[in-house]
């Protein structure tokens, strides 16, 4: 931009000299004519001096005017250049702010995803621990109830019998093969017993010919049919489980 300013200034000066030269030539022509018309007197010399002085003053004045115009023009160019740079800087700052906003938004999204994943993992872990606790406590309760039942002679109802399920059934229909298998074969208890040994221990407790007669003598009359049906269901499931284990082994 400074080279452009220098070129512009040189052009202005050149134009000033051209104009001055034109005026000088016109004035010199007039002076020459005066010399021809008037003899060489002091009065003529005074007139010539005044004319030359006026020519110089006009040239200087014109130069000052044009120089001021040029300076205003260059100042306007500088102002426009500064404004363009300011606008560029402003646009750059705006783009930078938008970029930073996108980065912050992405980080918030990543943090939200991470938080949700951690929260979901914590829920799964808590549910897993609750299931583990429920199975372990259910097995301990199952064994204690069988020990108490064997040592007692009190009358029994359907719900007094420790069925091989995590949740005590209310009717025989609540007993399912999946529930029996998951409860008896869970890896969370009886680690010292094989799968077959666990099934065999349950078969001894729910054998329809050996265990059922002794059990039925203590069952309340109103619950005898329910208990008989439930024992038969459990016995069939246990037989199926043992058959599968034998096929696998």
From TrEMBL:
- GO BP field: negative regulation of canonical NF-kappaB signal transduction
Species for this entry: Rhodocollybia butyracea
The reply on keyword Nucleus is yes
In the UniProt record, which is one GO cellular component term? nucleus
The residue stretches assigned to a coiled coil in this entry are: 74-109
Q: What is this protein called?
A: Uncharacterized protein
Q: Which UniProt keywords apply?
A: ANK repeat, Coiled coil, Nucleus, Phosphoprotein, Repeat
- Name where it mostly resides: nucleus
Q: Where in the cell is it found?
A: Nucleus
